[in-house]
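Hi there,

I know you've been waiting on this one. I reran it after we fixed the sequence typo, so this is the corrected version. Both the input and the resulting structure follow.
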Amino acid sequence: MALELTDGNFKETVLDSDKVAMVDFWAEWCGPCRMIGPIVEELSDEYMGKAVIGKVNVDSNSETATNYGIRSIPTILFFKNGEVVDKQIGAASKAVLVEKLKNNM
């Protein structure tokens, strides 16, 4: 299951991690977010122990969303060593997300 990331645990869980992190910025009311939600969950199971896979609800964690300039959702950011190294704006296939994960591992 994907980690629930918040303004309070984002730094420790994502930025301070020694693993690549894939972070899905989403909201309950967002149709495309609900479409990719199951893909994010699958990837969290498949990459357990190899990558940090998490979700940030932009409605309840606006500080983190604002810090990364999230203007449209879903937006998925990929982090390595505390820095954004790739991103996907809008819904994407599992293959696209897997490729971006692998390219940054």
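Quick highlight: Strands lie at 3-5, 20-26, 51-57, 75-80, 83-89.

Best,
R. S.
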